[in-house]
Amino acid sequence: MVLESLTNPNLAARRPWTQIIIGFVFATAALFLSLWIFEEYASLVMVFLTVTAALPLFYATMKLEEGKNATIPGEKTLLKEHAHSLRYLFYTFVGFSIAYTIWYIALPTGISTNVFKVQTQTIANLNQHVTGNVAKLSLLNKIFLNNVKVMIFCVLFAFIYGTGALFILAWNASVIGAAAGNFIRTHVSQYAEATGLGKIGVYFHGASLSVLRYSLHGVPEIMAYFVAGMAGGILSVAIINKEYRSKRFEKILLDASDLVLISVFILFVAALLEVFITPVFF
After folding, report:
1. Domain residue spans in the chain?
2. Predicted structure pTM score
3. Residue 190 confidence (pLDDT)
4. Which contacts of 142-149 are long-range, i.e. CB under 8 A and separated by 24 or more positions?
């Protein structure tokens, strides 16, 4: 109960940037506890423990957002209100990602390889390079459809389990952390050998490249998953509260549908960035 009591929707809305620190604490505690108690299965256990710490905040947020359907009349205003909660939830995710990235770099190679074993394998499976105009269009279609599939999982998990989407988001944070950490390590090594620059300068150069590489398309993707997760969470809370018996349920369905459509649009933009923009710079 100690970690869960660090934050709540009201505190998070007033000071959203502090959620980065709280997310960092959640993920760090989860990583070291999983490494200490479940070393062989740390890759997955740390994600579950991170989710466990963040569950109260996510569930309370879904209840709060579902309740706004009763007090806010206009759909446009309602979507703007959802944006406030999405912001601090996204900052929490950023805290997860930063923690995983830092510990991937800071831990000895053998330990970090074990802790992020499943994440590294996932990255290897996704690392397929396709060239040519036709191939790029094919890649765009593949990436977009894969992201939409993840989005559907977010909606379904959030609807069935209430806060189930949080697991997918925390898992993505661990994969991003492993990818960014590996990217930084690789570039630090390459620049150190090629130029003999000081370790600090090389480190920050690699870190900045890593942030740019994954944030170009990664930020909109994750925001889309949060939007989709909120849609499923709002529906889940509405069903629990038996809102389907009231006239207000139509408004809740419209709100959730709008959120899903927004998520699909963001994912399409993210796919365009990943296929046509990111390769230009990296």
Report:
1. 4-281
2. 0.83
3. 60
4. 143/271, 143/274, 143/275, 144/267, 144/268, 144/271, 147/221, 147/224, 147/267, 147/270, 147/271, 148/264, 148/267
